[in-house]
Amino acid sequence: MKIQELLARSRDVAVAAVVWTLVAGVPELAAKEVPACRVVADQRVEEPLGTIAKEYTRLTGIAVKLQFKSSDKIGASVGKETPATDVVVCMPEDLDTETPVSALPGAKAVAWKHPSRLPVWVAVVGKHPGAAKFAAFSGGPEGHRIWANAKAGFTMVTGKNAAEAFDWVAQNRVGHTYPLTAMRMMRELGGIRSGTCIDIGCGPGMLAAELAQRSEFKIIGLDIDPDQKPLFEKRIKEAGLDERVSFVLGDAQELPFPDNSADAIVSRGTLTFIPDIGKCLKEVDRVLKPGGVAFLGGRYLYTSAEHKITTESLRKIVADTKLPNARVVDSRGQWVKIVGPEAPAAARKPSGGPGMLAHRFVADYGVESGECLMIFGGGHGDGQQAMMEGFLDMTDVKITAIYTKPEGVAQAEARIREAKLGERVTCKVGGIEAIPCDDGAFDLVVGAGPMLIFADRPKAMKEIFRVLRDGGVSLVGGRFLGMPEFRKVKSETLRQDAAKTGIPSIRIIDDMGQWVEIRKGVRISP
Prior knowledge:
The longest helix is centred in the N-terminal third of the chain and has 15 residues, at 46-60. This protein has helices at residues 46-60, 71-76, 131-138, 141-149, 162-172, 178-188, 206-213, 228-238, 277-287, 311-321, 357-365, 382-394, 406-418, 457-467, 491-501; strands at residues 20-23, 26-29, 37-42, 64-69, 87-90, 108-113, 119-124, 154-155, 194-200, 216-223, 245-249, 262-267, 288-297, 326-329, 335-339, 371-375, 398-403, 425-429, 442-447, 468-477, 506-509, 515-520. 45% of the residues are buried. It is 30% helix and 24% strand. Strands 11-10-9-12-13-15-14 form a seven-stranded mixed beta sheet. It has a seven-stranded mixed beta sheet with strand order 18-17-16-19-20-22-21. A six-stranded mixed beta sheet has the order 4-3-5-7-6-8. It has 15 helices and 22 strands.
């Protein structure tokens, strides 16, 4: 089935897209012009789809030309020839009707309107080389982040009930983050590994299973939704953990547990869905043993706009509880940590460091395997080793590490042999301005510390882009905590340097430090 020329009688001139070629190993603009990918969409999705189109263009260099119409005009035109449209996006008028777009070959629902649950259908109807990728991007992980954050109110999935919908999200969008979250929580607990652990807002049990596999805890999953119980118990039984992990139906604002009964209380992404967060925190403090620790998650990547809360607002809520041992942690997410007066000293220390960079890559970019380039300075110390081991523990990547001095290679190889990591790590001499590797060799490039600050920064950025594969991502650090002022480079200066490269997919991130993010195309996931 085909679609009518939705842009008939319009004489719009196609916008030229940016296309990358490699000229002498450096990205340059191609001489030829490529027409924009033409998308005709339901006017009710203008806000999120406009953002999706901008992000797709930033990451791929392919321009997207959007035209918004009412659903009846789009629906009436389905089934006829069109040479002028590449992608069509439409919603039905209500749950009792369908849009003809849903019957087009390959059509896929990529989001749902909240709370009406009306699906957003996307179908490719043209031959533009970027059309299929745009459609997939709109329903992929990065597209779903944008749908979830839309002020107009959309969700990334639906189901028979909320529990079924969340189970899909847990498996298909954030499943790769549960092992990382469990590892982070074990560090935050400061060595507590046994006793009773309560997982508030446990959902279908993915976090509970990961925690159980990394500890000796008896874990109680608590959720207010009874539909979560069969999903939770099925997953726990399949994992062979049902002797230590159980489900309890209950409200986080009135925990059904006695005083001083839990050694650890955790949650992931639950706090902002609780009507009275302060009441919940007081309940957690009541149930926690004097030697216990609680680590409770607020918003996360896919938290919908209506349920998000600012970190400042969360700090005020925590302050209003007057709990002396409670504080907000805003590194790698949004958390509230409560440390009992008799808890291990290690639980009071901040958790982070170079090893957490792997957590950031997996959580933010979904990179779990492939080839990784690590860019270091002249030596290999504890920080470099921690970063390397973090990636090896949390991912399946193979690492190539480059050092500016032969001594750094020798130091690294000695520690790698000692740690028995030689099968997955290769070391060589090289620098960020002239990376000794082939074009398109790496899925990810990382470097923590001032790698860009002491280099010809535009040249270094181009070198990183050169060695990235299509769909690859790089995150390389600039200034860091404790660096002397005279050595720091302002983020605005880095942005000016990035603009000189001509690469549209570079951005400077001021979050947990100063970072240069470079993307090369998009990673398409199911």
